[in-house]
TrEMBL record:
The record's free-text note on cofactor binding: Binds 2 Zn(2+) ions per subunit. One is catalytic and the other provides a structural contribution.
Upper taxonomic lineage: Bacteria, Candidatus Curtissiibacteriota
Residue positions binding dihydroxyacetone phosphate: 184, 213-215, 235-238
Keyword tags: Metal-binding, Zinc
Protein name: Tagatose-bisphosphate aldolase
Chain sites annotated for binding Zn(2+) 2: 103, 133
UniProt keyword Metal-binding, yes or no: yes
Record flagged with keyword Metal-binding: yes
CDD domains: TBP_aldolase_IIB (cd00947)
Superkingdom, taxonomy of origin: Bacteria
One example of a Gene Ontology biological process annotation: carbohydrate metabolic process
Binding residue positions for Zn(2+) 1: 81, 183, 212
Species name: Candidatus Curtissbacteria bacterium RIFCSPHIGHO2_01_FULL_41_13
Cofactor(s) recorded in Swiss-Prot or TrEMBL: Zn(2+)
Length: 289
């Protein structure tokens, strides 16, 4: 199997999901690679617009292309929450991407459909998959101190009939529904509405489903989303950032006179890799490479 479509079809059939891990530093990149190699797992590396700006689009592609050769495991590349549409088009024209997530959830439904369809048409010509988003996934990829207003969150839940209309109108390959998931971690994490997810899956049976906001969700609920809701891709960002910061702070405290960054980085990378390995186990993708 080489393509993202092949891997997602396999995941759907065999009941596992591929972890899509955001990369916002070279240390996190190395941590994800080490973990995936240790677990013999396929993995998706994804970059948000901010992360693309930090690395540079061509550097992102070169880094991933080199990693595919070095680590000898299946590595998929995704533009995460792609916006504006021009960035999506630039990524489509840059060889190396497998998946483009166009996030039009801030727009009205019809405008979202119109723009998503443009991305789909361009991406499909290059053999790439497109992920679409109807309803905005709330929160941000940070550690939050406040609780979630669950009733307010429910207003953004994706309706199955709306999902069907969006998929039929755009031709997206992957849909990112909202069913209790939220970006970031919170003192009390909302429960996933697995019943709603199951109805969405039934409404769009030929479309792959992704779970955004994969940090902080209890393992049992993630497994339910994969087994019952047919989720094939789980996005994880916040838990990696938290592990990175915590480990880095500890290292700096323990070695105040160490100025060689690569000496400090080793334990930090291992701390993040441990989180990634745990997620891979939950997602069921270990040994699938």
């Amino acid at each position: 199997m080489n393509s993202a479509k092949d891997w997602f079809q396999c995941a759907k059939k065999e009941g596992f999901a591929i972890g899509a891990f955001n990369i916002d530093s070279l240390d996190i990149f190395k941590a994800v690679m080490v973990a995936a190699q240790n677990k013999k797992s396929p993995v998706m590396l994804e970059f948000s617009p901010g992360e693309v700006k930090y690395f540079g689009l061509r550097n992102v592609v070169d880094m991933v292309v080199n990693a595919r050769e070095e680590y000898k495991i299946p590595i998929l590349l995704n533009l995460d929450h792609g916006r504006p549409i021009e960035l999506c088009m630039e990524a489509i024209e840059q060889p190396g991407f497998d998946n483009i997530h166009f996030d039009g959830s801030d727009s009205e439904f019809e405008e979202n459909v119109k723009e998503t369809k443009k991305v789909v048409e361009a991406a499909h010509k290059k053999g790439l998959l497109v992920e679409g988003e109807i309803d905005k996934v709330s929160g941000s990829s940070e550690k939050h101190d406040e609780d979630v207003n669950v009733e307010q969150l429910k207003d953004s839940y994706t309706k199955p009939e709306k999902a069907f209309k969006f998929v039929q109108s755009t031709g997206v390959d992957i849909l990112a529904p909202v069913f209790g998931n939220i970006h970031g971690t919170f003192p009390t994490q909302p429960n996933l509405d697995i019943g709603l997810l199951t109805r969405i899956a039934q409404a769009v049976p030929e479309t792959f489903l992704s779970l955004h906001g994969g940090s902080g969700i209890p393992a049992s609920q993630v497994k339910e989303a994969i087994n019952l809701g047919k989720i094939v891709k789980v996005n994880v960002n916040t838990e990696l950032r938290v592990a990175y910061r915590d480990a880095l702070s500890e290292e700096l405290g323990e070695t105040p006179n160490e100025y060689k960054v690569y000496e400090i980085a080793d334990d930090v990378i291992l701390a993040v890799a441990s989180v990634v390995e745990g997620k891979i186990d939950i997602f069921g993708s270990a040994g699938k490479a």
